[in-house]
Amino acid sequence: MSTITNVRSILTAPDSVALVIVRVETDDGHGLGCATFTQRPTLVAEAVDQYLAPLLVGRDADRIEDLWQLMYLNAYWRNGPVLNNAISGVDMALWDLKGKLAGMPVYDLLGGRSRNAALVYRHANGRDPDEVLEAVEAHLADGARAVRCQLGGYGGSDPAGPDPTTRALRESLPGAYYSPDQYRRSVVDLFDHVRRHVGTELHLLHDIHERLAPMDAVRLARDLEPHELFFLEDPFPPDQVGWFRTLRHHTITPIAMGELHNHPLEWQPLVTERLIDFVRAHISQLGGITPARKLAALAEAFGVRTAWHGPHDVSPVGHAANLHLDLTASNFGIQEVIGFGAATREVFPGTPEIRDGYMWPSAGPGLGIEIDEEAAARYPVQPSVIGWTQSRWPDGSMWTP
C-alpha cells in the first residue's frame, strides 16, 4: 500500500500561459498531473487544495480506479470543467506515481507501445494566404508531416470599417468581432492557395472552432472536399451534436470533434453512430488518463481514431499523458502540438521532444517528466479577463468561441 500524504496544486505561467499542476505525495514517492483550465486556473487550484486534498490524504494511491470514482461522485454535482480538471490532475499524478514506483513508463502500464512516437500536426496562422503559406513551408523545413492552417485566427479577421452603422451596432458591445460569411469564403481560397504550392503529400487540417451557423459549416465541409483534409475540426458546439447526422449525409470530409466535451453523452452518440472520424477530447477536461483510455477503447470498437487536444494551454505534463496514450492505442490518429518555449522547458524537465514530424517520449519512468518548482515560481499566474472568447458577429450578436 502506498499511502497518500499530501495533494497540492502548483500554479505557473511560463511563456505567459497559465498552467495548473497537481503533485500527489505518498510515503514512498510522488507523481505529477495536469489540471489546466487556463481560463479559470485559480478555481481548479482551490478545488484541488480545499476539497480533493482532504478527501484523499490517508488513502491507498494504488487504487486509481476507485479513487477516480470517489472524486467524481463525492461532490454529488458532476461533469463540470473545474472539477473534471481537478480530478484529472490527481488521476494523472497517480498513474505517474505508479509508473515511477514500478520503474516503468506509463505506456507499459497501459499495455505497451503500439508505436515508438506519435505523428503530430503543427499550427500555421497568418493575416493572408501568403503568410499562412510561409508558416506551412517553415514547418515543412522542420520536418512536419501535417499542418493546421488558419487565416487570421478563429473566424478570420475583424471586418470592421469606420462607417457609422458599424459604430452604432458595436456601441456598448465590446468583443472579438468577425464575419462568418467572409470567414467561410476565405478558408476555401486559403486551401486553394496552400495546396497549389505544397501539393498533396502534406496532411492539411482546419478548425472551424464552432464559428459558423450549422448549415454554413456543412457547406464549408463540402466545399473543402477537393483538398482532402486530414480532418475538419469542431464544426458545431457541443449542444448542437444533432447536426452531425446532417453533416455526415452531405460530405465525405473527415470530421474531428470533442475538445469542449465534459459528459459522456456528448461523445457517445458521435462515436457509436460513426458520425465523426476522430475524437478530439481534452484529456484533463474528461478527468484524466482513466476516462480517456476508456473513451479510446470505445472509439476503437467503432472505427474512430484518437486526436487528443494539445494546444499551448496543455502543460508538458498533460502532453506527456497524451503521448503515452498515443503510443499505446491501436486506433491512434494524430496528436496536436504547438511547441514548447524555452521557459516552459526550463520549468518542466523531461518535456517530450518534437522531431521530424513526431513527438517522442522521454526515457524516464512514469510520465517521464518533472517540475522545477523554483523555476515555476518565477512565472506567476495572473488571472485576467479573457478577450478571444467574447466572440461576436458583425451585428453584435454573441456566438460560440
Describe the structure.
This protein has 15 helices and 15 strands. Helix 2 runs antiparallel to helix 3, helix 7 packs parallel to helix 8 and helix 8 packs parallel to helix 9. The chain has 401 residues and is an alpha/beta fold. Strands 4, 5, 7, 8, 9, 10, 11, 12, 13 and 14 form a ten-stranded mixed sheet that branches. The mean pLDDT is 96. The chain has two domains: 101 residues, 2-Layer Sandwich (Enolase-like, domain 1); 258 residues, Enolase-like C-terminal domain (TIM Barrel, Alpha-Beta Barrel), CATH 3.20.20. The longest helix has 22 residues. The N and C termini lie far apart (46 Å).
Could you name the key traits of this structure?
2 domains, TIM Barrel, 401 residues, 15 helices, 3-stranded antiparallel beta sheet
Q: Structural class given helices, strands, pairing?
A: alpha/beta
How many domains comprise the coordinates? 2
| Overall spatial form | globular
What is the string of SSEs from the N terminus onward?
Answer: EEEHHHHEHEHEHEHEHEHEHHEHEHEEHE
Radius of gyration, in angstroms, nearest whole number: 21 Å
**Annotated CATH homologous superfamily of the largest domain:** Enolase-like C-terminal domain
How are the SSEs ordered, and which strands pair?
Elements: E1 4-12, E2 19-26, E3 29-34, H1 41-56, H2 64-74, H3 81-102, H4 106-109, E4 118-126, H5 129-141, E5 146-151, H6 164-170, E6 176-177, H7 180-198, E7 203-207, H8 214-223, E8 231-233, H9 243-250, E9 255-257, H10 264-272, E10 278-279, H11 283-286, H12 289-301, E11 305-306, H13 316-328, E12 335-336, H14 342-347, E13 353-355, E14 358-360, H15 373-377, E15 391-392
Parallel strand pairs: 4-5, 4-12, 5-7, 6-15, 7-8, 8-9, 9-10, 10-11
Antiparallel strand pairs: 1-2, 2-3, 4-14, 13-14
Helix pairs in contact: 1-3, 2-3, 5-7, 7-8, 8-9
